[in-house]
Amino acid sequence: MGRLILLRHGQSLYNKENLFTGWTDVDLSEEGIEEAKRAGEILLKHDLLPDICFTSWLKRAIHTAQLALKEMEWEQIDCIKSWKLNERHYGAWQCHNKDAIRKEVGDEMFMAVRRGYDTSPPPLQDGDPRLAENDPKYRKLDPSSLPRGESLKATRKRVLNYFAEAIAPELARGKDLLVSAHGNSLRALVMAIEHLTPAEIVEVEIPTGEPIVYVFDETLHLLRKERPARFSKD
Ligand SMILES: O=C(O)[C@@H](CO)OP(=O)(O)O
Hints:
The protein has 234 residues and is of the alpha/beta class. It is built from eight helices and seven strands. Bound molecules: 2-phosphoglyceric acid.
């Protein structure tokens, strides 16, 4: 039996300012730091001590995992980082105020991109300083593999590739895994694990700092889902 613990990072500085974040590498706010520590308390209280930690390459997810594991006095485990767990790339909407974008594009387009399945934000154009290829973190990757604006569908493709190659084999070995990632990269994973349709995923919001636990058998058949912060199973 392997447990998959999904944890959305605590509130970031951009979440606090109501800005689209995507691949922008902003840190946690004070509130986000507290949420990450509280997540550690919840995990410890429920004996959810992971064998391996996975995070994205973005510091809000990395710091959330570190703060939670520190709170648990469980810092000895390996933490494997992959850009494939990064947040959905929000294209030209990155760094812009969400209310201003909603006003500019209208409610329907805003919600189609933000919570729909196959609508992408407008992509970043050549020369834009926000392109991932301008960030030294990604310079050893093939620039053509780096997104410039992703739908949830595109995000799901890269997240599921990584899940299949790196996460699923450990789960099948019965390991308990912490995945510290992002609202939309985790929505993509939840959609696949729970077999949700594009219409159903529209309604799914992942709360910051609140672990969601999936328990699998060794054939990766899902046995149950738990929300330890809510003290109930659903
Ligand atoms: O800005 C973002 O990258 C995401 C997550 O914070 O925003 P939203 O929840 O609006 O998709």
